[in-house]
Structure formats: C-alpha cells, structure tokens
Amino acid sequence: MNRDEALNAVKSRIKNGNLVKHMLAAEAIMRALANRFGEDEVEWGLAGLLHDIDLDVVNGDMSRHSKVSAEIAGELGASEAVTHAVLSHNERHGVACASRMDKALFCTDPLTGLITAAVLVLPGKKLAALEAKSVQRRFKEKGFAAGANREHIARCSEIGLTLDEFIEIGLKAMQGIAADLGL
User: Fold this and answer.
1) What DSSP letter does each residue of 23-80 carry, written as one string?
2) pLDDT digits (tens, 9 = 90+) for 21-58
3) How many domains in the chain?
4) What is the CATH number of the domain that holds 36?
C-alpha cells in the first residue's frame, strides 16, 4: 500500500472533512517523529493517516473503534506494525503500546486536537501565527480543548521527548501542511 492508496481509502470512507484533516495532521506529525528517530516515515505516516478510518463505520461505538480501523488497514495492505499501532491507539481494547510507533501514535492523536483548538482561537486562525509556547500554555489550561487528553499527550516521554519538544515537532509538522488543513 502506498500513501495515495491510503488517502483515497480515507476519503472514500470518511465523510467528515474535519476528521480527514485530523488524520492528515496525525500523518504529518507521525512522519516528523519518524524522521526525528530515524524510522520509516512512510510507515509511520500510514499509521497516522489510517488510525481513524473506521469512525463512520463504527458510528461512535468506541468499543469497536480501532479494531475495525486495524482490520481495514490490514485489508488495504498495511504492515502488521501499522495495524498494531492503529489498534493500540484506543486503550479500551487493552492492547498495549509496545513499539515506539505505537506510543507515538497514542500521544499524537490528541495533540492534533490541542494544536487545532489553539489555532482556532487566534484572530486569523492560521497555523503560521501559532507559537509552540502558546500551545504549551493551552496544554496547562484544563478547560481548553478538554477532549485533548493531556495524560495521553504527556506520554510523549515514553518515546524520548519532553512535552516542549513534542509540541514543537507537532506544530511544525502541522504548519508544513497548513494548506491541506485549511489553517
């Protein structure tokens, strides 16, 4: 499977444009993390791109979410490493994050939401204007972007990054695809 095939599969299965943008953001961050750690950027990117491909199918049933995504990813030709990362990003299944890719996807998923929320409160709503220190301040505000699980984001320490480093990498990655995100 290549990236274009994965993106076409996402776009054919996910009707919510904002969810597609979230998956693109996760892909960008995962690719940046892979680059940082000398890992396979394509493979890590696929994990980010495909991780929520089942959300229209499971219709909000989080007990099925990620199981179905992993199955779809496997059917599309994703590697076992990618399907495991996709499966383990939803902790409801009790599947431990074992690899660095698994752990990276787990903490990347909520980071995209925090960064997106931080940019949407800016007057111009542009990623180019957002600074990492602003995201770091927003991280500390419990009521801000409450759906972005801070404990999950903070598990970036399990992949060898400080919170500040992780936010910086994530923000730069999303800034790099700002046009695709409409931000």
Assistant:
1) HHHHHHHHHHHHHHHT--HHHHHHHHHHTTTTHHHHTT-TTTTTHHHHHHHHHHT--H
2) 999 999 999 999 999 999 999 999 999 999 999 999 99
3) 1
4) 1.10.3210.10
